[in-house]
């Protein structure tokens, strides 16, 4: 499976404010680029933190992109994936609408009542990992078995960290908007525990001005020691 991460950050590297409310960082051209990235994916993945904060739909909006997908036999919008260890996704979350299949990936310890509620709300519940936290390598294998070959990860910072930590990321694109959000508790592009001795090694492929910001595109080359 090919995995690419795309997110928008402020000039100081934040995904959002300390209130964790969705912030419009991208301009119209960047949102159009994101729509094209979604249209090229078999599924778009977020962590449950993003679902609770933003209530996203993660659909393809441009009618011509939707038509191109259906012309080649794909659903108009890629599948949506929520990584949600305990099944906290609300039954009325917009990501569970009928625009596309939505996989909610839970850990084996997720309560049966939550699994049943998600199933009733229209989610396809997938169990990955054998304890109380979703294991992403198992989750991605399960998604691959369901025909997902190209997976777009939109965030947030916790899930992006876990994707890098598991060595699952092939490409990273970051849109850096011209604003400063600040806040020691505001989410950043990569949160989690952070890397110390060995860190993901990026290869810069492209730098381009988009709207009033900069798009950075990287390949991921494995790991590098920090004392280089
Ligand atoms: N500017 C942008 O492009 C984007 C911004 N955001 C922002 O990011 C914030 C949400 O990000 P986060 O709080 O970091 O939440 P997140 O969306 O990364 O979800 C993290 C949650 O997923 C669950 N989880 C299950 N298994 C996990 C695993 N193996 N690794 C990590 N998490 C796992 C946990 O409950 C964890 O708290 C919001 O403020 C949202 O607005 C989110 C996406 C894109
Ligand atoms: N690329 C990008 N730029 C921004 O400025 C953003 N705030 C985000 N946020 C992400 O988009 C999701 C919402 O998408 P829909 O409104 O459902 O289409 C949000 O949940 C973040 O993942 N992305």
Automatic annotation (TrEMBL):
According to the UniProt entry, what is the EC number of this protein?
A: 1.1.1.302
Picking any one GO molecular function of the record gives:
NADP binding
Record keywords, A-Z: NADP, Oxidoreductase, Riboflavin biosynthesis
Which Gene3D superfamilies does this one have? Dihydrofolate Reductase, subunit A (3.40.430.10)
Q: Which reaction does it catalyse?
A: 2,5-diamino-6-(1-D-ribitylamino)pyrimidin-4(3H)-one 5'-phosphate + NADP(+) = 2,5-diamino-6-(1-D-ribosylamino)pyrimidin-4(3H)-one 5'-phosphate + NADPH + H(+); 2,5-diamino-6-(1-D-ribitylamino)pyrimidin-4(3H)-one 5'-phosphate + NAD(+) = 2,5-diamino-6-(1-D-ribosylamino)pyrimidin-4(3H)-one 5'-phosphate + NADH + H(+)
Keyword Oxidoreductase attributed: yes
Q: Which InterPro entries match?
A: DHFR-like_dom_sf (IPR024072), Rib_reduct_arc (IPR006401), RibD_C (IPR011549), RibDG_C (IPR002734), Riboflavin_Biosynth_HTPR (IPR050765)
The record ties this protein, via Pfam families, to:
RibD_C (PF01872)
Q: Which GO terms describe its biological process?
A: riboflavin biosynthetic process
Q: Which residues form the signal peptide?
A: none
Instruction: Identify the metabolic or biological route this protein is part of.
Output: Cofactor biosynthesis; riboflavin biosynthesis
Residue limits of the Bacterial bifunctional deaminase-reductase C-terminal domain?
3-216
Coiled coil residues, start to end: none
Q: So what family is this one in? A: Belongs to the HTP reductase family.
Q: How is the quaternary structure described?
A: Homodimer.
Protein's name in the database: 2,5-diamino-6-(ribosylamino)-4(3H)-pyrimidinone 5'-phosphate reductase
Species of origin reads Halobellus ruber
